[in-house]
Design goal:
By secondary structure, the chain is of the alpha+beta class. It folds into four domains: about 15-215, Histidine kinase-like ATPase, C-terminal domain (Heat Shock Protein 90, 2-Layer Sandwich); about 230-405, no CATH class; about 425-475 and about 505-585, no CATH class; about 620-770, no CATH class. It has 23 helices and 23 strands. It has an eight-stranded mixed β-sheet. A six-stranded mixed β-sheet has the order 12-11-13-18-14-15. The model is unreliable at about 1-10, about 90-95, about 95-105, about 465-475 and about 475-495 (pLDDT under 50). This is Histidine kinase/HSP90-like ATPase domain-containing protein. It comes from Sphingobium indicum (strain DSM 16412 / CCM 7286 / MTCC 6364 / B90A).
C-alpha cells in the first residue's frame, strides 16, 4: 500500500458554524471569554510577573441593531503570535488543562460562533512594538474552504501596554433580540456575579475587577446562616448551620494532552501518542454545606466549582438517592410546598467537565469520590440507610439533613430555633433581598434570629408582657441625655433627681418592617412595640395607636396593648389591627386621587401580602396533613416494643398487610421480613392502618409516648368510669386522626369546594395531632 500522498484532515470551516449551533446560554458564552482572561492573570502570577490591578471589561449591546457588537477586553499579559495561532484552533487546550479555566480552544470557538459571525482578536505584550490580531469571518471561511486567515497588526502608542481584546460583530438576530431586553442583561449580570463569586472575592492573583457595560460585578454571596448557629441532636452530636470540609485525596495521574484521568493501574496514557504528557496531581476536596436564611422552591442547591468558576449552580443531584435502578428524592420531602434551603459550595478541581463547561462528567472517578465525602455512601434518611445496612455516616450533608431537614418544628411545643426557620418565609425572603443589596443591617443573620426568638417566646408562653429589653435610645420620646457639666454647674454640686423609668415596651420584630401597598405603593416604615395598659403614649382604654415618630425617615411607631379584650379573639390579632390602621391612613392619603381606593379593596390588598400565615392554602394544608401521617407511621417502629413487632403486624387484616408489602416492593426493600421483625415495616403503612393500630393499642401512643394525653394513667377508682374516661380520650384522638386522614386524601380542588368550617376544624385537628415528644 502506497503512503506517498498525505491526506489533509483539516475539518471544513462549516465545523465552526456548527459549533455555533450548540445551545449555550449567552452568559456562559461570555464566561468562556472571561475564563481566558483570568487564565492569563494566573499564568502571569505563577511566572512571578503578576498583573497590577487585573481587570476584565465586557461590553454588551443595549439595542437590537445590525451594528451591535460584543467586546471583552482585559489587561492580562497578552500572547505571542504563535500562542494566538494555537489558541484559535478548535480543540486546542494548552499544556495545563487541570488547573486552568479556559485556555481558548473549543470553548472559544463555541462561544464566539454562538454569538456572531465575525470575531476579531487583538493581543499585545508589554514591550511589543504593536498589536497583532486576526479576523475570523465564518462566511468567508466557508466560501474559501480553508482555515487560513491573514495575520494583522495595528499601531501601539504605549509600548508598556499589555492585554487582549476580543470583539464579536454581525451578531445573530436572536442574540441581538435577547441582549436588547434589560431583564436579560440583568440576568447575565446575576449569573456572572454568582459564577465568579469565589474568584472575585479572593484568588491567587488578588482581587479581579470584572465590569459589564462599565458597571462593576460584585460577587453574589450566599445568604447563609452564621456557622456559629448550631443545634444538638439527641445523641449529643453538634450540628452547625454551616458544615465545612477540607479533605486530602490520593494523587491521580492525568494526561494533559488527551485531557483524561488515568485509571489507578495505568502507568502511562493508553493513547500512547508522542504529545501525551502524564502528570501526577495532588488533590483536595473542600467546601461547605449550610442553611439558607429562607426557603424557596428553586433557589437552593449546591454550587460545584472548578478552579474558582462555578460550573453547576444550584445542583440538586446530591439530594437524591439512587440504588442504580431508581432515584428517590430525599430533600426536600418534609416541606408542604416542596421548598428547600440547603446550599453550599464544593470545589471539585480535578473532575472533568463537558466541552460546553456546564456540567461535571459523572463517569469521572472524582465525581463518585466527591459524593462519598459530601453525603456518604447510603441514603440520607436514617431508616432507609439502616434498612440497606449503611451505618456511621458522618458526612456534612448527612449531619445537616438529620438536624435541619424540616421547615417547621416537630411537636406542639417544638421550637423554631431547633430548625432555624423564620415562620413568615415571605418576610425572610424580603430581608434576603436587602442582604443582596448589601444593606448593612441585613448582612448578619441577627434580624432573622430576632424573629425566631419571638416565635419561640410565643410557644413557651412568654408573651408581650414579659420584662422587655431596653428600647433604643432616643426612640419614642426617651429622656434626653443631661447637659454636660460646666464651671457654673459642676455635676457634683447638684445631683439630678432620678428620672422616671421608661415605660415597659417590648420591640416586636415580627411586626416591625416596611409595609408597601401592592397597588398604590404607599409605604409605611413601622417599628412595633407591645406596651402595658398604662403606657403614657397609648390613650386610656385604646388597644393600639399608630403615630408618625420620625418625619425625616417617615418612621411610624405602632404601640399595642396585647392584653386588651379585642385581642382575645380568633379574628383579631395585633397584625390585623395594624393593617386596619394602615388601610385607614392609605384611604386618607389617596382621598380624591383614586376611585379604586375603597376600604375593602385596600385592606384586602394589604392582607394578601402580609397575612399569609392565616390563609387556608389548599396545597399547603394537604402537604402538612400528608407529612403528619408519614411522621406518625415512621414513629410506630420506635413505639412498638421489639418483642411485640411480629404479633402486632400479624394482627393486621390481609388488606393492610398486602398494602404495606406492595409499598416495600415498590421501594426495593431487599428483606421485608427483617423490617417486620423490628417494627420498621410501619414506615410503609398508610393513615387508615395506623389509625386502626391506635384504636387497638392506644397505650403505644398516649401517656407521653407520642402524645402527653393520659390514658393508662387515668384512674377514677371505679373500673367502669375509668374505662369510659379512657375511651373518651381515644375517641377524641381518633377524631383528630380521621380529620387529618381526610385532609391528606383530598385534592386542592376538593379543598376549595369544602366548607370553610370543615377546613378550619380539620386544620385544628392537624395542630392537635402534632407529637408532644420527639420520637
Amino acid at each position: 500500500m502506497s503512503q506517498d500522498q498525505e491526506l489533509d484532515l483539516t475539518p471544513a470551516p462549516r465545523v465552526l458554524q456548527m459549533l455555533g449551533e450548540i445551545n449555550l446560554e449567552v452568559w456562559r458564552c461570555l464566561a468562556e471569554l472571561i475564563d481566558n482572561s483570568i487564565d492569563g492573570f494566573i499564568d502571569a502570577a505563577r511566572a512571578d510577573q503578576p498583573i497590577d490591578r487585573p481587570q476584565v471589561s465586557v461590553a454588551i449591546p443595549t439595542t437590537n441593531s445590525e451594528s451591535s457588537r460584543i467586546q471583552v477586553t482585559d489587561n492580562g499579559p497578552g500572547m505571542s503570535i504563535d500562542t494566538l495561532e494555537n489558541a484559535l484552533r478548535a480543540g486546542w487546550s494548552g499544556n495545563d488543562a487541570l488547573s486552568k479555566l479556559g485556555l481558548f480552544g473549543m470553548g472559544f470557538n463555541i462561544a464566539t460562533a454562538r454569538m456572531g459571525m465575525v470575531t476579531e482578536v487583538w493581543t499585545t505584550r508589554a514591550g511589543d512594538p504593536e498589536w497583532v490580531g486576526v479576523r475570523i469571518d465564518l462566511n468567508e471561511l466557508r466560501s474559501t474552504g480553508n482555515y487560513r486567515v491573514p495575520r494583522q497588526t495595528r499601531p501601539k502608542t504605549d509600548p508598556a501596554r499589555h492585554g487582549t481584546d476580543i470583539t464579536i460583530t454581525r451578531l445573530k438576530p436572536e442574540q441581538r433580540a435577547y441582549l436588547a431586553k434589560a431583564n436579560n442583561r440583568s440576568t447575565i449580570r446575576k449569573h456572572l456575579a454568582r459564577a465568579y463569586s469565589s474568584l472575585l472575592s479572593t484568588s491567587e492573583v488578588g482581587t479581579i475587577r470584572l465590569e459589564v457595560s462599565n458597571s462593576r460585578i460584585n460577587p453574589l454571596r450566599p445568604c447563609v446562616w452564621s456557622a456559629e448557629r448550631s443545634v444538638e441532636l439527641t445523641d449529643g452530636t453538634i450540628v452547625n448551620a454551616v458544615e465545612s470540609f477540607d479533605v486530602p485525596l490520593a494523587p491521580r495521574r492525568f494526561c494533559n494532552h488527551c485531557m483524561r484521568t488515568l485509571a489507578s493501574d495505568e502507568e502511562s496514557c493508553p493513547t500512547g501518542g508522542d504529545s501525551c504528557a502524564v502528570v501526577e496531581t495532588p488533590r483536595r476536596l473542600r467546601g461547605w454545606v449550610g442553611l439558607q436564611r429562607y426557603l424557596d422552591k428553586s433557589e437552593f442547591g449546591l454550587d460545584l466549582i472548578r478552579n474558582g468558576r462555578k460550573i453547576e449552580i444550584g445542583n440538586k443531584d446530591l439530594f437524591n438517592w439512587s440504588d442504580g435502578d431508581s432515584v428517590e428524592v430525599e430533600y426536600p420531602i418534609d416541606d408542604p410546598r416542596s421548598r428547600g434551603r440547603f446550599i453550599g459550595e464544593i470545589h471539585l478541581d480535578h473532575c472533568q467537565v463537558s466541552y460546553t463547561k456546564n456540567r461535571f462528567e459523572r463517569d469521572d472517578p472524582a465525581w463518585a469520590e466527591m459524593v462519598r465525602v459530601v453525603r456518604g455512601d447510603g441514603p440520607l434518611r436514617p431508616n432507609a440507610a439502616r434498612q440497606l445496612g449503611h451505618t456511621d455516616n458522618h458526612s456534612p450533608l448527612y449531619k445537616l439533613f438529620q438536624a435541619f431537614r424540616r421547615s417547621s418544628p416537630q411537636g406542639k411545643n417544638g421550637l423554631w430555633s431547633r430548625v432555624l426557620v423564620v415562620q413568615d418565609n415571605d418576610r425572610a425572603q424580603q430581608m434576603a433581598a436587602e442582604f443582596a443589596k448589601d444593606e448593612v443591617e441585613f448582612l448578619s443573620d441577627e434580624r432573622w434570629w430576632q424573629l425566631i426568638e419571638e416565635q419561640d417566646r410565643r410557644i413557651l408562653g412568654d408573651g408581650p408582657n414579659a420584662p422587655p429589653p431596653p428600647v433604643p435610645d432616643g426612640f419614642l420620646g426617651d429622656a434626653s441625655p443631661p447637659d454636660p457639666p460646666t464651671d457654673e454647674n459642676p455635676r457634683e454640686e447638684a445631683a439630678p433627681s432620678p428620672a422616671p423609668p421608661p415605660p415597659a415596651r417590648r420591640p416586636v420584630h415580627e411586626l416591625s418592617r416596611r409595609y408597601v401597598h401592592p397597588t398604590f405603593r404607599v409605604e409605611y416604615d413601622i417599628q412595633a412595640f407591645a406596651v402595658e395598659p398604662g403606657d403614657p403614649d397609648l390613650p386610656p382604654g385604646q388597644p393600639w395607636i399608630v403615630r408618625l415618630e420620625d418625619v425625616s425617615t417617615r418612621t411610624y411607631a405602632y404601640l399595642f396593648d396585647a392584653t386588651h379584650e379585642i385581642f382575645r379573639s380568633t379574628t383579631m390579632t395585633p397584625l390585623d389591627a395594624m393593617l386596619v390602621e394602615l388601610t385607614h391612613r392609605t384611604i386618607e392619603f389617596l382621598r380624591g386621587q383614586s376611585m379604586e381606593a375603597t376600604t375593602g379593596a385596600v385592606l384586602a390588598d394589604f392582607r394578601s401580602v402580609y397575612s399569609v400565615d392565616t390563609r387556608l392554602d389548599a396545597q399547603e394544608i394537604i402537604g402538612l396533613a400528608t407529612n403528619a401521617i408519614a411522621d406518625l407511621c415512621r414513629a410506630v417502629s420506635a413505639l412498638i416494643p421489639s418483642a411485640d413487632a411480629v404479633p402486632i403486624h400479624d394482627e393486621l387484616v390481609e388488606r393492610d398487610r398486602a398494602a404495606m408489602a406492595r409499598r416495600m416492593a415498590g421501594r426495593g426493600v431487599p428483606d421485608p421480613r427483617a423490617l417486620i421483625e423490628d417494627g420498621r415495616s410501619w414506615d410503609y403503612a398508610d393513615g387508615a392502618t395506623v389509625r386502626g393500630l391506635f384504636n387497638r393499642r392506644p397505650e403505644l401512643f398516649l401517656d407521653g409516648r407520642y402524645w402527653d394525653e393520659p390514658h393508662q394513667a387515668i384512674d377514677f377508682g371505679d373500673p367502669e368510669i375509668t374505662a369510659e374516661a379512657r375511651q373518651a380520650t381515644v375517641a377524641r384522638y381518633d377524631a383528630y386522626l380521621g380529620d387529618v386522614i381526610w385532609l391528606s386524601e383530598q385534592t386542592p380542588a376538593e379543598i376549595e369546594r369544602a366548607s370553610r368550617d370543615a377546613i378550619i376544624r380539620a386544620t385544628c385537628s392537624l395542630r392537635l395531632l402534632r407529637p408532644d415528644v420527639a420520637v
